[in-house]
Write a structure and sequence with these properties.
By secondary structure, this protein is mainly alpha-helical. The protein is built from eleven helices and no strands. α5 runs parallel beside α8. It is elongated, with a radius of gyration of 20 Å. About 3% of the residues have low confidence.
């Protein structure tokens, strides 16, 4: 974990120097040569605690989504996660002092995100008892990704604020876009691994359809319960 923190610190310090040079009249070529590092920055940052990895893996473990649709959920989560930070920084910096109770956190966004995910968790528990309804899980996947991503990415927020204060918002936007690709890479690996593992378990018991149905309903019920407990813990602790 300390190694991940060190990598992020080194990249961020280099980013700060690059932004200062860009603001002082440096060209886009110099900035563009550094932007690929933002992908690594985002991917490494997403490996650290947070970023709704547990929510993503829990939901996909209890759903019946394919790998392709699971990747779409992870992409939606990544895009929303980074975009929320960009919106707060670009459109209304005063919101930082209102929505954020401490540096790097947004309690208001966390409450909205976790509260709605808690409702989805209850819905999954209800479906586990009643049985699956065709098509509902597919439509719900993108919504879960959006809700889980409502919590803004703190490092993206820091990057954007730094760039805005230097008067080079466009450079911050370019870096944030590359960061989103890195975050999406890590979350997509989590999503793909979860679904492949779930499908492997399903294949092992495919010869026993009744057992498969019951196991699927149990897993979905447990996933829903975990989502609800995550939401409940977040709301109670704020």
């Amino acid at each position: 974990m300390q190694g991940l923190v060190d990598i992020q610190r080194d990249i961020y310090l280099t980013f700060a120097d690059t932004i200062r040079a860009f603001a002082a009249g440096g060209g886009w070529f110099e900035l563009a040569t550094f932007l690929p590092m933002a992908i690594i920055f985002g991917a490494v940052h997403a490996l650290t605690p947070g970023h709704s990895k547990a929510v993503l893996a829990t939901y996909l473990a209890g759903s019946s989504l394919s790998v392709a649709r699971g990747l779409m959920v992870s992409l939606t989560l990544s895009f929303t996660h980074v975009l929320m930070a960009v919106i707060i920084a670009v459109l209304s910096l005063p919101l930082v002092s209102i929505a954020m109770g401490s540096v790097g956190r947004a309690p208001a966004m966390e409450n909205v995100s976790r509260g709605l995910l808690g409702l989805i968790g209850l819905w999954m528990i209800w479906r586990a008892f009643r049985g699956h309804l065709d098509g509902i899980g597919k439509n719900r996947g993108a919504l879960v990704g959006f809700l889980a991503g409502l919590i803004p990415c703190p490092l993206t927020l820091f990057v954007m604020i730094f760039a805005i204060h230097r008067g080079v918002t466009e450079a911050g936007l370019a870096f944030a876009a590359m960061m989103m690709l890195g975050v999406a890479t890590t979350l997509s690996v989590v999503a793909g691994a979860t679904i492949i593992f779930r499908q492997g378990i399903a294949t092992l018991i495919a010869s026993r359809p009744l057992l498969l149905d019951r196991t699927g309903r149990i897993v979905e019920g447990l996933a829903g319960l975990i989502l609800f407990l995550i939401a409940f813990r977040t709301l109670v602790s704020t």
